[in-house]
Amino acid sequence: MEKRHFTLIELLVVIAIIAILAAMLMPALQQARDRAKAANCVSNLKQLGTGVMMYQRDSDGYYVPYLIDEGNNINFAYYMWKHYVTNDMAFFCPKKVRTWYKGEMPKNYVSSYGTNQFSIFGSYWIRKNGGSPEYEKWSMIPAKESQVARPSATILMLDSYNYSDPTIGGSGCSPYSKTNGIVAYAEHNNTCNIVWCDSSVRPIKTNTPFGCYELLGNFNGRSAIGNGNYWDRTSVRKGI
């Protein structure tokens, strides 16, 4: 029996069908990868939140300060990695570019997750006004657990966007919307992963990647206390 060979047209048809199927599958595969990265990000934030709670138990209820030792340029990420969160993968979102890969973490290493620096990781206000103290090293004076009225509705850390380098994110997140520095960002398909001050991780869904502040509020001055935003740690603000 004579063997039958595919004609050129038949081969082109098969190739075209394979290409169509691949084009149909690629978005689904990309979505699956994005979901896996979002889940990994949630796990990272949960580890960091648990590490902060462990630090609190060892530090009379204080949250970890943004700067552990300014003189030696030691950021909170390095200290947490040394003592509480040994998984170095936990300090950056899987959708960001990692800036440190092996060996000793740099002492000034900046996590890709934005911190609620002004209300939790640092002092409430920098300058004396209306009874608030004035701290020269304000970024080393964190909040105490007893000062956070609603831990489950107060931001600890979250996905961030760094205008200087969008690929890496950054700590010290601004508690109000702006177009420079480091801001809250819905990294995962318009979803922003957040670890709250009770160490729970609950994301928010936004309309745009930069739409986080529409839901989280803008904490941009004394007049913002109690206006329902989720950066504020006081007892007069609304819960989530």
In words, what does this structure look like?
With about 240 residues, the protein is α+β, with helices and mostly antiparallel strands. The protein is built from 4 helices and 8 strands, in the order H-E-E-H-E-H-E-E-E-E-E-H. Residues about 125-130 have low confidence and may be disordered.
Helix content: 25-40%
How far the N terminus sits from the C terminus, by CA atoms, comes to 77 Å
Task: Supply the number of helical segments.
Answer: 4
Radius of gyration from the CA trace?
23 Å
Shape verdict? elongated
Oligomer: single chain
Biggest sheet statistics: 4 strands, antiparallel
Task: Quickly give the structural class.
Answer: alpha+beta
Order of helices and strands: HEEHEHEEEEEH
State which percent range the strand residues make up. 5-15%
Q: What average pLDDT do the residues reach?
A: 82
Number of strands: 8
The unreliable regions are 125-131
In short:
The protein has helices at residues 8-58, 76-83, 117-121, 212-216, and strands at 67-69, 74-75, 113-115, 155-162, 182-184, 191-192, 194-196, 204-205. It has 240 residues and is an alpha+beta fold. The model is unreliable at 125-131 (pLDDT under 50).
